[in-house]
Structures are given as C-alpha cells and as structure tokens.
Amino acid sequence: MKQPTLLLGITGGISAYKLTDLASRLTKEGIRVLTVMTDSAQQFITPLTMETLTKQRCYTQLFDRQTPEEVTHIWLAQQADVVLVAPATANFLAKMTYGLADDLLSSVLLATTAPVLVSPAMNVHMYRNPATQQNLAALQQRGVQVIPPEEGLLACGETGEGRLPETETLYRWVKKALAPQDLAGKKILVTAGATREAVDPVRFLTNHSTGKMGYAVAQAAWQRGAEVTLVSGVTALNCPVGVNRIPVTSAADMMEAVQQHWQEQDAFVLSAAVADFTPEHPAGQKIKKEGQSQRTLSLAATQDILAWLGEHKKQGQRLCGFSMETEHLLENSRKKLERKKADMIAANSLTQPGAGFGVDTNCLTLIGPDWEEQLPLMSKEDCAGALLDKLLGDQS
C-alpha cells in the first residue's frame, strides 16, 4: 500500500511555527510529509527543523537538483497526494491566483494535479481587503479548498479574522483530503453527549456520557464527505471540524432539534445518552433541605427520539441507535432494535474494560435485523469508521 504523501508549502507568516506540530503529528501517523519553504518562510522557522520532524528533506530552491535527471518542481508535484499551503500569505495567494511561478512552491502548485488546500493567515484588514477576497474566490472557483481563518488576537496586536487555525483543524482538513469521499452528497444527523433535566435552578439529573463516541462519528462522517448536523447535549468537547453543531440541554430540546432537521437527512446515528425521565414539576427556586429528612421527586417519561424516528423515517433513510448495557447485552440490544424499528444498534457494555463513558476506546457489537458483527477494542475514531461502513455501505 502506497504511503500517503502531503506536500506542505510554508510561506512567510509568523504562524509558520504552528506547522511544526502538524508535520510531527502526521509523520507519527505514517504520512509522508514533504516540505517546501519560501525564502520568507525561512525567516520564521528553519528547513532543519522541518527535516528533523518529518525525516524528509526540506526543499527551498527551484534549481536545487539532487540528480541531473530530476526536475525538482515536477517531481514534488508528482509525489503529492494532497498539497497544503499554510500559512498562505496575502502575497502568495495573489501569486497563486495569477499563476506566477517564480519560486519552487509556486511552480509546484502549477504542476500538481493533487487536491490543493490553502489556509490564509494575515492581518484582519489584509484578509478583508477586496483584492484578497477576490483572489480567494477565484481560487475556490478553480477547485482550491480554502480553510477559513480563525478570529482572535493577531500577532500585530489587532483582533479579528486572520489567525491560522490550530493544529487539530489543519490535521482534519488534511485527513479529509486523503480520505475516500464515499459519503459525499450524504446528509447525516448525529446526536451526542448527555442531556440535563432540571430539578430546580441549581440541580439537574444527568448521566456520565462525555459525547466522545458521537463526536467521533460526526468527525469521521465529515472527513468522508458527508454534510453533518451534530445535535449535542452538554459536553466539554470542541466542535468537530466542518460540522454544524446544534447545542441543546434537555431531552425535549434534543427532540425539538431532531424534528427540525430529520426530513432532509440520509442517515441518523443516535449516540446521545438521553434522559428517559424528567422531573414532572421543576422548582422555580432552589429547593431547601431545612426541615426535610427525605423528599420525593416525581418523574415523567421523556419522548423517545429513536422510537419517533423509527416510526417516521422515510424510505431510504438509515437509522442507528446505541445501547449501553450492564447485563444481557445482545438480548437487550436486539429487543431495542426491533422495538424502536431501527436499522442497526451499536451495543456496548459498561462492564467491558476500555469501553463506555469518558475513554478514547470502545468495543461495539453492531446488530442488524438478521446479523451481528463484533468489533474488537479500538479507538472511538476507528469504531466510528466501522459503524459508518456498516450503516451506509455493507448493509448485509
């Protein structure tokens, strides 16, 4: 199997130092990172730094041939499975737009047939300048993917758009560019995290869910080309890159969000830990304990989101629910599959070491109407990929 190759083009911006972390992370994952640096980029970081982190030569000169038969910019262009230019300065974006080829990186970009990503990073007014915006629009029309800059405090002291995204964001865009886009054109709704049911303005009923499994599914689906809506309960996790997150608090909030977006979806993955019951009469003020040795809390059942979708889903829509059990895992999960009219249940046991809430691994059993598949203990990201394969690919 061919080793995937990223050609990383670094231009002269202060945020160039962030690319060291990205290059190191990708290299550790087995991705070959070939770095091309402009003269200006070398004012901020050195070729030696990139060579040390990537274990590959860093290229800086258009006419620096290692062998007589090697045409450096053509060879580099042919090696790339994806090209990322980051930080992409206003000057370099203008060069790309007008097809200049006056250095190694600009020549590589004219010669490559690989997907090209650019991550603009500059002063907010330079970014908003009509010339820069027109250049970005022109590049997008030619198929270049533009990674939006983040907002915040800039190196110049001003605040606004223009920050180079953090490593995680760039990493996910690269992974998407390298991944098969087999879910392109699909719309997938994912629920994740815990709901909170108010007892009074201070207290609430909830559970141990952190949302990690659902967030992994949302990220994996986006990386494979899907348009993802993530209805998220309370969690400390950052929004997955490229995903439309709808934050909710209670089970009723989650149901409302799902009902607003369900009709246009191709598939649903309901991994949220939704409360089965909610206080029937939440107190308007904090409940005091003085003078009370015990208190009874009256609970009412919440509306079942999985069952509602099972009743209402249209032909062709695929529905996957989750089942967390402490006993009789397969028996209880298969009953849930039939009762809720789902296409698949992802079952996991709270008693399984390395699975369940708050950890980065899971051990799922995928259950369909007449089949089941036991997955080994693996990362939640790998679990997400296997789940999507089964739900939207192999449906036997």
From TrEMBL:
Keywords: Decarboxylase, Flavoprotein, FMN, Ligase, Lyase, Magnesium, Metal-binding, Multifunctional enzyme. Residues 6-176 form the Flavoprotein domain. Residues 1-187 are annotated as: Phosphopantothenoylcysteine decarboxylase. Residues 188-396 are annotated as: Phosphopantothenate--cysteine ligase. Pfam families: DFP (PF04127), Flavoprotein (PF02441). Its cofactor is FMN; Mg(2+). One of its GO terms (molecular function) is phosphopantothenoylcysteine decarboxylase activity. It catalyses: (R)-4'-phosphopantothenate + L-cysteine + CTP = N-[(R)-4-phosphopantothenoyl]-L-cysteine + CMP + diphosphate + H(+); N-[(R)-4-phosphopantothenoyl]-L-cysteine + H(+) = (R)-4'-phosphopantetheine + CO2. Binds 1 FMN per subunit. GO terms for biological process: coenzyme A biosynthetic process; pantothenate catabolic process. CTP binds at D276, K286, F322, K336, K340. Its EC number is 4.1.1.36, 6.3.2.5. Pathway: Cofactor biosynthesis; coenzyme A biosynthesis; CoA from (R)-pantothenate: step 3/5; Cofactor biosynthesis; coenzyme A biosynthesis; CoA from (R)-pantothenate: step 2/5. The active site is at C156. GO terms for cellular component: phosphopantothenoylcysteine decarboxylase complex. Transmembrane segments: none annotated. Residues 183-391 form the DNA/pantothenate metabolism flavoprotein C-terminal domain. Catalyzes two sequential steps in the biosynthesis of coenzyme A. In the first step cysteine is conjugated to 4'-phosphopantothenate to form 4-phosphopantothenoylcysteine. In the second step the latter compound is decarboxylated to form 4'-phosphopantotheine. HAMAP family: CoaBC (MF_02225). In the C-terminal section; belongs to the PPC synthetase family. This is Coenzyme A biosynthesis bifunctional protein CoaBC. It comes from Candidatus Egerieicola faecale.
